């Protein structure tokens, strides 16, 4: 029975997908005598929390809330943020039982909400459909639990494991798959590429949905992109651009860069350092689009969780660019886990995790 109502809360939570960054997807369902009285969801960043939406739905018949049960996918908050604490709304409404999908790993909550409810004599049950509930906010959970952004590496390759012709923009997948990738980007808070990709492809790196904080990140040790002020990422101001470089002599160039571009100097552009800096900006997830050297750097750093590969029925051969290549010597095979395979148009999509 608990599972049935929690499933309904999960479905409600999905309504906010892509619109709540950096807040989680949350759904809530109020039940009394096995009957659903109200459903709520967190629909946009900064907006009302799911619990409050469901409670407010019954504002004209508050007596219905007395002795009811609220199912909520994430532990109710107990802090004053952009919204008032949901614990207080639950207590004031006279709700008798709270069924929670998962504890909120965000340190501003993490157990405080559950404690507050129990201190007020409310019965709290934790962990119903926990795995499904955790899947709603994979990146959010990862970020707060591991204290670094979730990283997915994405590549489109030919049948011979190549990425592109030498120094040429090379389209491997169909327009349909390109659109799917743009939609996939919308599940992440940042896209990351190397300077070679910027110089060869001149992409805008925008996502299909642009109404949430979204970053475009460029790793450019030698500061090569600064010599090309007409690049699409400089012209398109719809999302901030962060450029990581080892070139400290950028002050003159930085003055002439558009306002949406920020340069971050690191003595050495190490993947772990880059991720620390992105984490400090509360970026919970990064979609790494290559090219070959950037992917290889992530591979060797072990700072990644998922590899998404699109295999197109094309052959490049010759001196074309190999996927994930560098001069680094390797002696062991990296095997992926939890592999899923899907056919998209004439392309095969393979997703696997590092652990
Ligand atoms: C949400 N929606 O339905 C729930 C959240 O700044 P605030 O007040 O919006 O608080 C954001 C935090 O509140 C969020 O990171 C999470 O820890 C907690 N619960 N947040 O945006 C919700 N229940
Ligand atoms: Zn809340």
Draw up the topology in text.
Layout: H1 2-13, E1 27-32, E2 35-41, H2 50-57, E3 69-74, H3 86-93, E4 97-102, H4 112-119, E5 123-126, H5 130-136, H6 138-146, E6 150-157, E7 162-164, H7 175-185, E8 190-194, H8 195-201, E9 215-219, H9 232-235, E10 241-245, H10 251-256, E11 261-265, H11 271-280, E12 285-288, H12 292-301, E13 306-311, E14 321-322, E15 337-344, E16 347-353
Parallel strand pairs: 3-4, 4-5, 6-12, 6-13, 8-9, 8-12, 9-10, 10-11
Antiparallel strand pairs: 1-2, 1-3, 7-14, 13-16, 15-16
Helix pairs in contact: 3-4
InterPro entries: APOBEC/CMP_deaminase_Zn-bd (IPR016192), CMP_dCMP_dom (IPR002125), Cytidine_deaminase-like (IPR016193), DHFR-like_dom_sf (IPR024072), Eubact_RibD (IPR004794), RibDG_C (IPR002734), Riboflavin_Biosynth_HTPR (IPR050765)
Binding site for NADP(+): 156, 197, 201, 291-297
Cofactor: Zn(2+)
Write a structural description.
There is one protein chain. With 355 residues, the chain is an alpha/beta fold. The chain has two domains: 1-144, 3-Layer(aba) Sandwich (Cytidine Deaminase, domain 2); 148-353, Dihydrofolate Reductase, subunit A. Helices cover 28% and strands 25% of the residues. It contains twelve helices and 16 strands. It has helices at 2-13, 50-57, 86-93, 112-119, 130-136, 138-146, 175-185, 195-201, 232-235, 251-256, 271-280, 292-301, and strands at 27-32, 35-41, 69-74, 97-102, 123-126, 150-157, 162-164, 190-194, 215-219, 241-245, 261-265, 285-288, 306-311, 321-322, 337-344, 347-353. The protein has a nine-stranded mixed beta sheet with strand order 11-10-9-8-12-6-13-16-15. Helix 3 packs parallel to helix 4. The longest helix has 12 residues, at 2-13. The radius of gyration is 23 Å and the shape is elongated. The structure holds ligand AOF and zinc ion. The site of zinc ion has 6 residues, from loops.
């Amino acid at each position: 029975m608990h599972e049935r109502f929690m499933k309904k809360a999960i479905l409600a939570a999905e309504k906010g997908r892509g619109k709540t960054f950096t807040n989680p997807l949350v759904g809530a369902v109020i039940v009394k005598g096995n009957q659903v009285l109200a459903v709520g969801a967190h629909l946009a960043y900064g907006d009302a929390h799911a619990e409050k939406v469901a409670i407010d739905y019954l504002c004209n018949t508050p007596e219905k809330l007395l002795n009811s049960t609220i199912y909520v996918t994430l532990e109710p908050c107990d802090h004053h943020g952009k919204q008032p604490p949901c614990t207080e709304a639950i207590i004031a409404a006279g709700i008798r039982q709270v069924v929670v999908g998962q504890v909120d790993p965000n340190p501003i909550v993490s157990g405080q909400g559950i404690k507050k409810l129990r201190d007020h004599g409310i019965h709290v049950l934790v962990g119903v459909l926990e795995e499904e509930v955790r899947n709603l906010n994979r990146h959010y959970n990862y970020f707060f639990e591991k204290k670094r952004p979730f990283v997915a590496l994405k590549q489109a390759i030919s049948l011979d494991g190549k990425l592109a012709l030498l120094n040429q923009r090379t389209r491997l997948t169909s327009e349909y798959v390109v659109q799917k990738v743009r939609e996939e980007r919308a599940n992440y808070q940042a896209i990351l590429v190397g300077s070679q990709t910027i110089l060869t492809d001149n992409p805008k790196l925008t996502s299909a949905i642009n109404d949430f904080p979204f970053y475009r990140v460029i790793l450019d040790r030698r500061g090569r992109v600064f010599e090309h002020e007409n690049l699409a990422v400089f012209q398109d101001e719809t999302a901030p651009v962060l450029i990581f470089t080892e070139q400290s002599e950028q002050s003159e160039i930085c003055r002439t860069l558009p306002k949406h571009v920020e340069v971050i100097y690191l003595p050495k552009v190490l993947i772990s350092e880059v991720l620390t800096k992105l984490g400090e900006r509360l970026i919970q997830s990064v979609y790494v689009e290559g090219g070959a050297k950037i992917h290889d750097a992530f591979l060797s750093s072990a700072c990644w969780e998922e590899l998404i590969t699109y295999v197109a029925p094309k052959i490049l051969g010759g001196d074309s660019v190999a996927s994930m290549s560098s001069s680094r010597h390797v002696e062991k095979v990296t095997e992926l886990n939890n592999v899923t395979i899907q056919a998209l148009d004439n392309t095969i999509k393979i997703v696997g995790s590092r652990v």
